[in-house]
Sequence to fold (442 residues):
Amino acid sequence: MGVVRAPYRPWLLPLLVLFISLFHTTLCNNAKINFREKEKQVLDQILGPGRYDARIRPSGLNGTGVDGPTVVRVNFFLRSISKIDDYKMEYSVQLTFREQWLDERLKFNDFGGRLKYLTLTEASRVWMPDLFFSNEKEGHFHNIIMPNVYIRIFPYGSVLYSIRISLTLSCPMNLKLYPLDRQVCSLRMASYGWTTDDLVFLWKEGDPVQVVKNLHLPRFTLEKFLTDYCNSKTNTGEYSCLKVDLLFKREFSYYLIQIYIPCCMLVIVSWVSFWLDQGAVPARVSLGVTTLLTMATQTSGINASLPPVSYTKAIDVWTGVCLTFVFGALLEFALVNYASRSDMHRENMKKKRRELESAQSMDAASDLMDTDSNTTFAMKVRQCEVHMQPPRPNCCKIWLSKFPTRSKRIDVISRITFPLVFALFNLVYWMTYLFREEAEEN
Fold:
């Protein structure tokens, strides 16, 4: 069989060349499209003069119109906490703050997904929520090298606003358990002019607050944080409000080393006076006055870093009792010195009395020798022996009898009494405040 050949059509070749050239031109044009230029055109289209008014808030969700409030979802990233000031009752934070809402007026064509979002750096170009931090004392934006702010507009009209800010916020503190305390510092965000009929703030679902890893604070530990709502009603209406509570636990090891152990050492040093000779007046006075002044300086230094409050703090109880023990040791020496002089006076009186009694006894003996009534003398001696029977033995009296002078007895009793009372105070102090700390934590 012969091969059947298709008829020759010379006009097909030019058409094929033309089709190939057109297809190649289309591909080249698509490859050369400048989407940055398209982005400019889209921005001019949606934000051009007469097209968008930033003074008008967006309509509510699901096209509810002006009757529905605009919903703004908030979240932030806590970058650092620079300080927590007990005296001023404030703390400073740096955070990346974000807001997101839907503005259907900003919808645009994404060219098949090639334009994921539009980026702006001027917040005045679009409507912005009038959020403010209600417990802010100071704050500033970051402008190095460029302003740390951006606005992203997504094809379906969603707007994301992100900015890095530093804030100094007030934090009312309860210092009754200081330095065994925990403090709750809040960050409050509210609308300034729009009521809940027009604007509602909500926490972003999932993870509204993120905290940087390895957050280090010099004297505190961030234990946890809680998000909540704090809407407020005033004479002008109800305003939407968000808050996050940061729970800080004070690091006790610093205060143990800087306050508690030095105070204990000063109290113990003041007890050295009890072991010095009662005649070493300059040494005992110098030791007592030095420890007292050092303890007073330590107390004033502690109070200088704390605000003047109307209640008693745990550290006030500690320093007050330690100061009392040091002052008591100084008063103890004053009592010992007085008792020593009294003992010397009593010893002189006894010495004179013994001399007088010895002289009287010699006279009485001579009188008895001159009389012939030996029987009467023997009866008097028996009566004296009956009336001078030794008392029952007492352990404390026997032990104290080893120290003949009252001044020495006061020193010996102080050596035992002061440490025992101080140990009892420590037991009561730590049990009281540690249990109160656990109760407040629960």
Observations:
- The first strand starts at residue 70 and ends at 85.
- The mean pLDDT is 82.
